[in-house]
């Protein structure tokens, strides 16, 4: 459809499909798989820059290089408990009716290790994390001890070598402990600190421009007229981009006009990618689709998935553009299963759970049905329409149903937690 014509006032009855749909097969893939869509999107994204950040600023970033241990942990063989350190052989046979007496010759605590050697019949009071003194090879916890005079202690059970933490038992100096590509969560940042690193190399965030489209879309808070909807896509997608570690460039909203869309896209200068919602399906006024097909470059149109099939990936003057469907559920689900994995390099995390209800299959599409979680099982949420936005808020998971493979109650299924 030429963009110079007035699409709002056609001379005759409106065409049900754009003209290019009746032409020979397009020079780009149609109906790609979910995995193909992820791969093609990831291939268009620019190579990620790296930067070095202090640990306090690296939460949520992706590690850009391997981290080796600069020290061993523990740095010395130490006690896992408060109690006494002794020779195991001296404590065998200890029991409440027949306690074993040892002579206390000192103590070892974190930061102040005992400097002597534990001999036969001797022990040292020791505290959690304190170095094990030479000669000792086992620990008896304080709960199993009774004082016996100023320098004696009675053991009501044998000392155990299992309560000793050996030097380097966690990691050793020089060992690669963290590998590039890890998302830096709180436990991983704590581990990086324990390895001895005050700062870490991380991937710089991708700058993603975000644009919502549609004449019917208005900002929340304004009065609605018949047929209008509030712009929920830009709010949800912005939050998901931030959660994915991206820097968001908000382009606002553009109406259904080729000129307005092109002007909005042209404002995305400096972005690494552009994410749009709406205008990519089969309708007469899906101008985002038209712009990419007629004036840009298209990598694919449509994905074999539901919800979210009418997505399009292309480029505009060297800028990767991924057009998401306008239906809010479709838009957010496509982001979750395609866009986020491509941006982060991490596939969606899945669990294998038992289906409490059946989940139907589609003959030619992978279905991502919304489901509720209860007692380690998943049940069909019920309302699966692409416009039922509250379903993504109420449901706790997406059940993955491969093409043509229905799920019966009692089957194990792959589940993406929301």
TrEMBL record:
Native source species: Deinococcus knuensis
Role, per record: Catalyzes the insertion of molybdate into adenylated molybdopterin with the concomitant release of AMP.
EC numbers, comma separated: 2.10.1.1
Cofactor(s) in the UniProt record: Mg(2+)
CDD domains in the record: MoeA
Pfam families xref list: MoCF_biosynth (PF00994), MoeA_C (PF03454), MoeA_N (PF03453)
Gene3D superfamilies: MoaB/Mog-like domain, MoeA, C-terminal, domain IV, Molybdopterin biosynthesis moea protein, domain 2, Molybdopterin biosynthesis moea protein, domain 3
Signal peptide extent: none
Occurrences of domain MoaB/Mog (ranges): 209-345
Protein name per UniProt: Molybdopterin molybdenumtransferase
Entry's family note: Belongs to the MoeA family.
Keywords, alphabetical: Magnesium, Metal-binding, Molybdenum, Molybdenum cofactor biosynthesis, Transferase
Residues that span the membrane, as ranges: none
Pathway connected to this protein: Cofactor biosynthesis; molybdopterin biosynthesis
Xref: InterPro entries: MoaB/Mog-like_dom_sf, MoaB/Mog_dom, MoeA-like, MoeA_C_domain_IV, MoeA_C_domain_IV_sf, MoeA_linker/N, MoeA_linker/N_sf
Ribonucleoprotein as UniProt keyword: no
Catalytic reactions on record: adenylyl-molybdopterin + molybdate = Mo-molybdopterin + AMP + H(+)
Lineage: Bacteria, Thermotogati, Deinococcota, Deinococci, Deinococcales
Class of enzymatic activity (EC top level): transferase
């Amino acid at each position: 459809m030429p963009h110079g014509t007035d699409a709002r006032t056609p001379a005759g009855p409106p065409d049900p499909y754009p003209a290019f749909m009746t032409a020979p097969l397009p020079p780009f893939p149609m109906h790609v798989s979910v995995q193909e869509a992820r791969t093609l999107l990831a291939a268009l994204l620019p190579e990620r820059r790296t930067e070095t950040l202090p640990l306090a600023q690296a939460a949520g970033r992706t590690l850009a290089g391997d981290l080796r241990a600069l020290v061993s942990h523990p740095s010395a063989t130490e006690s896992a408990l408060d109690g006494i350190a002794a020779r195991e052989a001296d404590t065998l046979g200890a029991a409440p009716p027949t306690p074993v007496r040892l002579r206390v010759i000192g103590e070892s605590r974190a930061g102040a290790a005992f400097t002597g050697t534990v001999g036969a019949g001797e022990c040292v009071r020791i505290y959690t994390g304190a170095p094990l003194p030479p000669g000792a090879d086992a620990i008896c916890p304080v709960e199993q001890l009774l004082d016996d005079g100023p320098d004696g202690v009675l053991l009501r059970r044998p000392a155990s070598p299992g309560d000793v933490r050996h030097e380097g038992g966690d990691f050793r100096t020089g060992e690669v402990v963290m590998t590039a590509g890890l998302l830096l969560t709180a436990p991983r940042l704590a581990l990086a600190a324990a390895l001895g690193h005050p700062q870490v190399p991380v991937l710089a965030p991708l700058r993603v421009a975000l644009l919502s489209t549609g004449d019917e879309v208005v900002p929340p808070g304004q009065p609605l007229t018949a047929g209008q909807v509030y712009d929920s896509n830009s709010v949800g997608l912005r939050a998901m981009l931030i959660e994915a570690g991206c820097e968001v460039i908000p382009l606002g909203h553009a109406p259904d006009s080729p000129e307005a869309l092109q002007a909005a896209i042209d404002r995305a200068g400096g972005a690494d990618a552009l994410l749009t919602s709406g205008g990519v399906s089969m309708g007469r006024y899906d101008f985002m689709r038209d712009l990419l097909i007629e004036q840009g470059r298209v990598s694919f149109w449509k994905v074999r998935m539901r919800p979210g099939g009418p997505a399009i990936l292309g480029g505009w003057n060297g800028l990767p553009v991924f057009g998401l469907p306008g239906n809010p559920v479709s838009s957010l689900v496509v982001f979750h299963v395609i866009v986020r994995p491509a941006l982060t390099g991490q596939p969606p995390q899945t669990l294998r759970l038992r289906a409490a209800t059946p989940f139907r299959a589609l003959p030619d599409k992978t279905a991502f049905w919304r489901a509720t979680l209860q007692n380690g099982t998943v049940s069909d949420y019920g309302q699966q329409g692409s416009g039922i936005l509250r379903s993504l808020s109420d449901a706790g998971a997406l059940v993955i149903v491969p093409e043509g493979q229905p799920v019966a109650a009692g089957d194990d299924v792959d589940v993406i937690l929301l």
